[in-house]
Structures are given as structure tokens and as C-alpha cells.
Amino acid sequence: MKMKLAAWTVGAFVVLGGAYYAYDYYAGNHVTIQEAIPAGAAAATTSAASAPVGEALNGNWNIRPDSKVYFTVKTSKEQVNFEGSSVAGKWALNSADPAKMAADAVVGIAALQSGNSQRDGHIKGAEYLNAQTFPEAKFKLKTVNNFPKEWKEGEKVSFDMTGTLTIKDISKDVTFKTDAAYNQGIINMGGTAVVTFDDFGMKNPHAVVLDTENNVTITLSLAMEQQNS
């Protein structure tokens, strides 16, 4: 009887320990999303803020290296953010005719991190993002809707950017609900779009002690500077 009890105790310990490991492996948020336009910043105006900004915006803009792109999943325990810190791209801005705009961007998958190295290695492995074979996620602009013809320095504007997102070898059109603000030669841009694991041929990950939603929220936190002519 004592031997059976001891065996049951050991078995229970192994099962509970495994469940704890699975929770620790898949859960735990260690990344805070940096807002592209801090709350309240767009409302803070100066004497220069009343001045319209029009043709000064036209031209080629490059994404600065301090820009971020985040991928967020929600589990039954919490929200988990993955930060992409390797972001590059450009935007040909035409405020008079948004149909003539062009933009593209790439995010380096190898630099994606959530603060949990085991989880990061798993999500970048062959079962999911397969960073070794597909080292970049790509976005190419198709249309811009509700783009404001006139901006004012320091004030936030909103519009929609629709384009083709390619992850691994699968492409899907997505729309980013976008906010932007121009201030002292820099455009800060934030935006969100929602995709699913299914959209890009990936299974929804689950662990022993928690479920994960199928939706993945993509958040932009970009800073852009005008390309020198």
C-alpha cells in the first residue's frame, strides 16, 4: 500500500511538474508594447502646431531602426507580446493623390523575442514561423483610404492602410487601422491589424494548462524620417 501511495505521489508530481513547465513555457508576458504616439502627446500643441503641413510630407520616407512591430496572442491566462526589433522599409508619400503612394516593409523573424528563449525558439521553429527558411515577414502597400489631405504639426491623423502581408510563403491582404503624427521632421505611425494562425498555415498552439486564441494582433510602432534627396 505504501509503495502504491509513493508511486501515485511521484506520478502526480511528474504530471503537475509537467503542467507547470508547459505553463511556464507557453505563458508569461515579458514585453511591453511601446506606443508609436504616446497617449496625450497628439493633443499637446505649440504655436507651431497650428501650422498646416502639406507638401512638406511628400517624398520618400525611411523606417528608422528604432521602430518596432509586435505580434500579440491571448491565452486563457494572459496576453503575450512578441517584439520584432529588426524592421526596415520605405514609404513614398503623396498627400495630393494617395493612389500614387507606395510602401513596403520587412520584419526580421530571427530577432523576434518574447522574453522567453524556449518559447521564442519554438515559435521561430519549423512548426510555426520557420525562420531558417523564411527569415522575413513582408508587407507591401496596395491602397490607402481616408488619408487626410492636410496635416498639422503635432496633431494625430487617422487612416486605413491595406496591403499584402507575407509570412513564410503565404500571402494575405490585411488592413491596418492607422494613426500618425508629424513632428519636427519625424512621422510616428501606429497601427493594428488582426490575422489568425490559420491564415498562414499554422496550428493554434495549446498547452496543458491554458488555451490560446486563434487571433494574432499585429501592432506597428514606427518612426520614419524623410530620405535625403
For the CA atoms, what is the radius of gyration?
Answer: 22 Å
The total strand number stands at 12
User: How many helices?
Assistant: 2
Distance between the termini: 84 Å
The biggest beta sheet reads: 8 strands, antiparallel, barrel
Query: Mean pLDDT score, rounded?
Result: 84
Shape: elongated
Biggest β-sheet: strands ordered side by side in the sheet: 2-5-6-7-9-10-11-12
Element string (H = helix, E = strand):
HEEEEEEHEEEEEE
Name the poorly predicted regions: 2-23, 43-49
Roughly how much helix do the residues carry, as a percent range? 10-25%
Structural class label: mainly beta
Strand content: 35-45%
Oligomeric state of the chains in view: single chain
Features:
229 residues; mainly beta; eight-stranded antiparallel barrel; two-stranded antiparallel sheet; 2 helices; 12 strands; 14% helix; elongated; disordered N terminus
Would you give an account of this structure?
There is one protein chain. With 229 residues, this protein is mostly beta strands. 14% of the residues lie in helices and 41% in strands. The chain has 2 helices and 12 strands, in the order αββββββαββββββ. It has helices spanning 2-26, 117-123, and strands at 52-53, 59-63, 68-74, 79-84, 87-93, 102-108, 136-145, 151-152, 156-167, 170-183, 186-196, 215-226. An 8-stranded antiparallel beta barrel has the order 2-5-6-7-9-10-11-12. A hairpin with a 2-residue loop joins strand 9 and strand 10. The longest helix is centred in the N-terminal third of the chain and has 25 residues, at 2-26. The chain is elongated, with a radius of gyration of 22 Å.
